[in-house]
Amino acid sequence: MHIIHVSAELAPVAKVGGLADVVYGLSREIEIRGNTVEVILPKYDCMWYDEIWGLHKIYDDLWVPWYSASVQCSVWFGFVHGRKCYFIEPHSQENFFNRGSFYGFNDDPMRFAFFCRAVMEYLFKSGKRPDIIHCHDWQTGLLPVLLYEVYAGMGMERQRVCYTIHNFKHQGITGESILWATGLGRPEYYFHYDRLLDNFNNTAINLMKGGIVYSNYVTTVSPHHSWEARYTDQGYGLGQTLAIHHYKFSGVLNGVDYDIWNPEIDRFIPSHYTVWNVDGKYPNKDALRERLWLRKEFKPLIAYVGRLDAQKGVHLIQHAMFYALEHGAQFILLGAGGDSGINNHFWHLKHYLNDNANCHLEIGFNEQLAHQIYAGADIIVVPSLFEPCGLAQMIAMRYGAIPVVRAVGGLVDTVFDRDNSDKLPEERNGYVFRDADFAGIESALSRAIGLWYDHPKEFRRLITNSMAADCSWARSGEHYLGIYDYVRVK
Q: 314-326 and 438-454 helices cross at what angle (nearest 10)?
């Protein structure tokens, strides 16, 4: 099959969050399985250009319809760690992708609406006819609308769209000007509940809703989150739309790239180890303590790695830190967030705990240190309020750091409680709590710390269980190939 991914992000050249890692990991897995895979991105000025090999212009006269005129674009091609990538560069006074940042502008919906129209125009004029166009998040939600309403009547009626929603919170809610800009027009047609009309604002269209309505298949990033999106407030108002289109909606769990996150070959850690040689993990714990000036003594090391924002349960992260210190454990935090209030609060905590030899807070992000924390920690906490999939718990398991997680989203699909799961004993790999309160996380942490102290052989067995779990892209890639084959025109 020929698959083209259309995305606002791709690791490592244009990365804001997990979307970038998913697009890279999935495209790589699908290509390994013998398919032709390409990725189309905006050509941002702030990309990591040193990660692109052989970047060169291949199309210099792509005129994209825009309002009553056209915008000239160039299309560039290059390889990103082996992935075949196309970058669309508009030459317009709006300066869509030359702003020093990927997102965060008032006209973001217009910027990415233009990107969708430019992608379709490039596919049409270049003669590319992929079996599947795989779109990601709200930024590409307008593409299946354009395909069905415009380009299908121009010879692209055989192309099919798979649309993946990584985060329901951001949906691209905007006004009718986008319809006129992209050439769709007819606001009386699109401002309809069965098409693009936002479910709660009858003066706005919803780009993500358009992606759901017009795509041939819709996925989100874990089976449990697909249920949450339909039946709880985690669908952020799209639950009814998903119910209408339930026959083409499911959850497919993301994977972890084991070429990067793998203690057997990790170039960032001092001691390599495997599930058959767990003892090799412990020199990493000693090295981590030495790097962060933590006291070397007989205590479990608990860690948090990730963003510091409300979604991640920052009040529970802080409580876990003090609970760990009060109950015979050490604690490391690595993270930062976009909210200045949260960041300042954790800077205050860092100064408050600066002289504590059992605690270290690193406010910011350091890729090498993240690897070393996963390798050195005994326990990782992931107390998210919502978590569509989550990578931290899957990375932690690969490194034998026992996950303590809240029962939401993809955390439910990957972490199975040692004491209360219906899974077989050898499949239980962590601790799970349900309520987003102090009692909830205390109940899980107390069991984890207690097992570490009182039953070290059982804790070691839990480590081997977690390391043996397969969270690679192999299973997810197979699932997506099944979806592609289901929707494509035979």
A: 40
* Assigned token pair, 299: 């205590």
The structure's pTM equals: 0.94
Q: Is residue 452 part of a domain?
A: yes
Task: State mean pLDDT over 335-360.
Answer: 93
Neighbours of 30 (CB within 10 A): 24
CA dihedral 26, 27, 28, 30 (to 10 degrees): 80
Structural domains counted in the chain: 2
pLDDT digits (tens, 9 = 90+) for 401-411: 999 999 999 99
**CA 337 to chain CA centroid, nearest Å:** 16
72 and 165, same domain (yes or no): yes
Note the pLDDT of residue 339.
86
Q: Phi and psi for 352 in degrees, rounded to 5?
A: -65, -35
Are 358 and 214 part of one and the same domain? no
Same-domain status, 400 and 416: yes
Residues paired with 304 in a beta bridge: 333
> In the predicted model, is pLDDT for residue 81 greater than 90?
yes
Question: Comparing 220-224, 308-312, 476-480, which segment has the lowest mean pLDDT?
Answer: 308-312
Closest residue by Cα to residue 166 from 191, 139, 143: 139
Over residues 142-150, mean pLDDT: 98
Residue 263 lies in a domain: no
Look up the CATH number of the domain holding residue 356: 3.40.50.2000
Q: What is the CA radius of gyration of the chain?
A: 23
User: Given this model, what pLDDT does residue 179 score?
Assistant: 98
